[in-house]
Design goal:
Mean pLDDT: 79
Radius of gyration: 24 Å
Order of helices and strands: HHHHHHHHHHHH
Number of domains: 1
CATH architecture: Orthogonal Bundle
Number of helices: 12
Largest sheet: none
Number of strands: 0
Structural class: mainly alpha
CATH topology: MetI-like fold
Length: 296
Amino acid sequence: MSFDERGGAPVRRPSSEGRRAASLFQFGSSYGFSAAGTALPESSHGRFRGRIVVLGLLVPALILTLWFIASELSEIPDYLLPSPSQVVLAGVELAQSGLLATYVLISMQRVFLGFAIGAAVGLALGALVGLSRTASQILSPTLGAIRAVPSLAWVPLLTIYLGIYETPKITLIAIGAAFPVFTTVASALRHVDPHLVEAGRAFGLGRLSLLTTVQLPAVVPSVVSGLRLALAQSWLFLVAAELIASSMGLGFLLVDSQNNGRMDRIYLAIILLAVLGKTTDALIGVGERALLKRWG
């Protein structure tokens, strides 16, 4: 659904007499490059995951309880602290009008598109800077300066150059998503064990094959960490992006609710951003397990 405000297999060592064939990843494991770490016994997986869920719900339950007590049993006025039931009713009201689903979907579309573009750019730049000392000396100072520019500083420039519709919003989110991936990938590639790289060259791998077959698999945990940071950054930049002449989205809901004094809708927008951010982060966690199973 689209919205617009205008309407490789492991490489084997060549066999030789008297030597057992071994894969490159088996060689790498001798240097501690098992990204997955020590596997848990299969029987304990269910108990471990259940414990994680229970412990993860403790703090939200405590916050909800304190919120309910403070809003219902204290003298704090509703215009400063709405009750949980008032926030739920605000969500029901928006859902019945058809606005809630529209706001959520348009924000998710912007985040996903910006995140995908930014992560791809960050991965490419991180690989270039991490593997080439010359590229690092040329690009690192400029990229470091651009990274230091606050998100809101880009808003007037993008509005002038790209207009007021979807393009500047997605571009701003992409800018926010690119730098966490760039930083983590570049740093991780610089610290790949040189013995593993030399082993890849001994197997006859070229520069591109060495990157895709040896170096990137060796830094999978760092890449995933960068992607998680980039996704969180995308949700942060979303609010700034939806300040650009926006009439839909959760960022717009925040600003519009502030202007109208709807504290219940402000709480609703913040809770939705938190839930969506955590949900999308969990999806990357699923991808992380698949990557670690493949290259761990």
